[in-house]
Amino acid sequence: MLPGEGAKLVSKALDNKYKSFTFPVLPKSVEQLKALPEASLTDPYAVAALTIAVLDCHGTDPAACHAMLNVLKGPEPLSQAEKDFIRERLSGKEYKPRSFFAGATPENNYTPTTPWTVRVHANPYSFQNEGWAILYIKSGGGDNERGIKLRQKPSTGQWFLNDIQCLSDIRLPASEDKWR
């Protein structure tokens, strides 16, 4: 096998693959996060789903959100710039993370159905570079899927959050849209 062919085979096997994750409750602390079966961090799709579940906590407890994101980030904790980015993107828009859960739409003010379900998607380019992945999640308030970048630690096989690319603006909830 030539260099890079292994990554191409992995990419081909994962093209357009979807995985759904259902959470009876969303974690509010590092202990609750670590208790979830997805917290082994061996499945990149699960890490992407956990990222969304953890971001939902930011509106009520930013410190707990940051602590949980640090677990998902592994050996590189959140930088101050990343914390500022998350705060800026979610300030006054706490509905954004909820928009990624099943049933959440602008019409229902991004109230997801419970249990909380998030669907993660890989496209043909998601695993293009060995040890890296960009997986996608659809927001009920956006037209396109949004990315979450992950990196694999070869010594453990675990996948860690590298970059949150899914927090761009979406449609306003009906209750906040002055044009409805």
Write up this protein.
This protein is of the alpha+beta class and 180 residues long. It has one domain. The protein is 31% helix and 19% strand. It contains six helices and five strands, in the order H-E-H-H-H-H-H-E-E-E-E. It has helices at 5-14, 30-35, 44-55, 62-73, 80-90, 95-98, and strands at residues 18-23, 116-121, 132-137, 146-153, 158-165. The protein has a five-stranded antiparallel sheet. A hairpin with a 4-residue loop joins strand 4 and strand 5 (158-165). Helix 3 packs antiparallel against helix 4 (62-73).
In short:
This protein is of the alpha+beta class. It is 31% helix and 19% strand.
